[in-house]
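Observation: inputs received (chain + S-adenosylmethionine).
Thought: call the complex predictor directly.
Action: predict_structure
Action Input:
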Amino acid sequence: MTTWLRAYQPPLLLHSRICHHTNPPRSPFLSPPHWRASVCPRRMPTRAVAATTNDARLLRDGIADFYDESSTLWENIWGDHMHHGFYNPDSSVSVSDHRAAQVRMIEEALSFAGVSEEPTERPESVVDVGCGIGGSSRYIAKKYEAKCQGITLSPVQAQRANALAAAQGLADKVSFQVADALDQPFPDDQFDLVWSMESGEHMPDKKKFVNELARVAAPGGTIIIVTWCHRDLAPSEESLQPWEKELLNKICNAYYLPAWCSTADYVELLQSLSLQDIKAEDWSRYVAPFWPAVIRSALTWKGLTSLLRSGLKTIKGALAMPLMIEGYKKDLIKFAIITCRKPQDAVAYDILAYVEFS
Ligand SMILES: C[S@@+](CC[C@H](N)C(=O)[O-])C[C@H]1O[C@@H](n2cnc3c(N)ncnc32)[C@H](O)[C@@H]1O
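Observation:
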């Protein structure tokens, strides 16, 4: 059994199933509809299909509502980036440094992935998968003079992201829409840079998620996934410890998260798609000051009054913040970056594979 199948599954949410096709698999990048899904509905009993579809809908709706409800509060206190900051380990940081740390996170991720700043090599087209209110998109569009399209499940976020783009004179460069990362509204081979900053943890089917990232990447394009993972399992382990599952469960319930996986699981998935230059690193030590700072900001007068006005889902999320700190401290939660490149000859490879198997 692969570590992927052993990945932790919280009881309430989705159970992705690996589909074993009887035909030889074509190129991973060739994706006619019947090859795209990693869930294989025809092999599932009708009731299981209904439960899974219903679970998927519940999760999507929960995520959309959660961000519809909480994004204005977050923006008022933290600005337009809804992700961890990147800090020098063991440094003491002042509150005003946190926004700079969030921008630094974007810079560090681009640099880790080796995204070029040379005018002839820098990305011209970018997709921001799980874009929030578009902070990364606007930053990246300005940095590289690139066109950027963002997708989110939250209509409130998409609307706000477009409004901010217009206000900053970027409406011709960046645009945002409501769409599902697991079924992206883009053709194959589109984007020089595929960017997913802290959205992967929300994806109930990690295999489908990664397939979609690879599908929309242009040949030679870079894929960057920055996400929450659980620790890698030891070779002797079948699953996480019961206390670890219990802690993750509580976090899942508060933040609308499905099954977690490890960084090694992501690497395995990327390898299975023949993606190149796969790199992964644990950045947990660089993000340590983040959650204590979020808690401190929630405990200010502005934070508390905004929180009380925002709604139950947001309050539930705020109450779960100490659990994230506990997860990091106990080495259960890992803040991971995983990057790779789609082969330059992916299109030719697709055509050859198609001819060979059709
Ligand atoms: C923590 S926020 C990160 C936002 C943004 N990347 C940033 O760094 O500011 C998570 C984002 O993932 C999006 N998301 C979660 N599941 C998604 C899905 N299945 N399809 C599209 N977006 C999704 C949410 O709507 C939200 O915008």
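Thought: report the result.
Final Answer: Residues 63, 67, 81-83, 130-132, 135-136, 151-154, 157, 180-182, 197-199, 202-203 surround S-adenosylmethionine (CB under 6 Å). The chain has 15 helices and seven strands.
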